[in-house]
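User: Hello, can you help with two protein structures?

Assistant: Certainly.
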Amino acid sequence: MTDSTSPCPAGPARSGSRGAPAARPNLWADYDRALRHHWSGAALRHRRSGRPDRPAGSTFYLDGRFVTDIEGFYCALGEAINGLGGYFGWNLSALDDCLRGRWGALPPFRLIWHHAEVARRRLVPGYDRPASTRRTRGPAITLQDLLAILTEGRVDVDLR
């Protein structure tokens, strides 16, 4: 039996045993990087396929208060585009796929990124080794990297 009042790390896109949507925004915010990665994976598994994209020209609002790592970015972006427990990528390849449409938003679209200063401070150059993938160690994905990818994907990003 699952307690529907608390987040379920194995299936955070849905809480409770009946598959009800996540109860509130940023439910993933207190998770470490590994659980945030699992959150995005669960969001992918539970996404509502067959739902049409929001039309080109739509505006989405990203709550950036908890974008302290790349996994937090994917969680926040998923919620911005597809609502509570939403999915819009969980790695760079998946983000590229999502930016082609059929994942909730049809480019071009506008993304208003609130509290962007958090990502400016945390998504910086260096080396990054997420707890969930200890086999690899590579350059960190920076805010500038993400902005370049989003811009190439025809997303107008407004950092606030």
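That covers the first. Now for the second protein you mentioned:
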Amino acid sequence: MLLITFLPEPPPADALDKLVAPDGEEVRIDGREIYVHYPNGSGRSKLKLPALRPGTARNLNTIRKLAEMAAAMEDGS
């Protein structure tokens, strides 16, 4: 499962310095987004992200559906 958190501004450069990602989970920051890959799902994850600015998180399937809806609105469909 891939979860993407959208932040209002980029997090500090050292935001993930003390992060411990258990069970093969991966965390990456790209601009204002934080990408978290949960290879075994997020339900039982012990991953603790550092306290950052409030944001909104969505899984990749939801983001794809929202992008489709936005494209349809632009096309007037």
